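pasting for the record
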Amino acid sequence: MPEHLYSQEAEQSVLGCMILDSRTIDYIKNLNGDDFYYESHKDLFNSIMLLNKKNKPIDLVTIVEQLKSIGKLEDVGGISYITSLSTIVPNTSSIGHYIDIVKGFSDKRRMIIASYKFIENIRGGKDIDSSLEIFEKSTNIIDEVKEYNNTLDYIMSNIFDKLNDKPQEKIKTNIAIIDKHTNGIGKKELIAIGAGSGVGKSAIALKISIEAYKKGKKVMIISREMSKEQVAERIILSETGISKLDYENRSFTESDWVKLTNTMSNYYTKNIIIDDQISTIQGIKRAIRVNKPDLVIVDYVQLLTPSSIKDTRERQVAELSRELKNITLDFGVPVIQLTQLAEKGNGNFRPRGESYTRESRAIYHDSNIVIYLHRVTEEKELNEAYKRTIFNERGSFDDMKATIEAQGIKGNKFLEIIVDKNRNGTTGSNYYWFKGSDLNYYPIV
């Protein structure tokens, strides 16, 4: 190992501080024996830490006896070397600095070894994703540091320090029923949005993306259902109000051209990333590291590629959902996973609970918030909608059905947006028109 990748003096100083003053061991949290380059220093460090764990005094006599008991005294240089360590430390109060040096060199060595192994795996024929996963597991330097911040005293202190700060800024969806019950989307939350085909799950995710972007957030959309050009065109339609038919036929008025120009200018940005090539969890992780988004949207989870093709489909989808949940915790970023709904007999029944997420109930269980989009067509549900909406004041039940039918001819769907699960809040639902021409949701008023 090149000389610049270790410091004998720093390792000696750490050990010297521990021998001179056992109270300095309290500062040793993210350091372990393997962080020392010299084998003799590893043995000496481990012996001191073992004595400390056993609540035994730490001095020259106890250290020597411990090393003798494991046959390592001569290996570390004998009594004379241990004695010399306590004489080379200028100041025990600088132990934090010495630890940082030792840990820094240890991290560099680990990264180099892992990099060599990564290259060997690639040359040996392993695919990139699995090789990267091995690399990440062998270089979990950040995770090691984090785990020492898990004691309740640290957590309570951190919470207390934040009490005078502004409340956590959540990402508002600008869809009243969702924001009412969730107060917006928070960091480390996994949100599942489920709907049948053509009901508008991609549209609602896109609407949330636009709202987040307008609030200064960086959004990353993983699209496995549409190309990145199609997603961008949906943004244009949603913001301009131009119908899909007019857009496809390039039938634009002078006013449309003004809207198009303004919209494309407003969205000429690097803060919305649309990737239609990523298909794996590892790919999503890499993209998050590179782009550092404030919100990630996966459209949709069942279209991602699982790590094992041998597992049952239910287990594959469960693993994908679990990994997306882990991403929210590891990166501190909210993730919205879109999901198809399971077919339930012949009727278009109102979804509720875990059994409606297609191919795996884990999607429901892993998510902090589950939102269903339901097209209301069944007689019983229409009756319920009539009682709960302004239709009740404006006319008869048959009048409402006639309005829904007329709107349907125009391409507008009568939907119930349902907040079915909310781990940290309330649940509820309300009714909306989904206007397919501009991909927007309008409350029934």
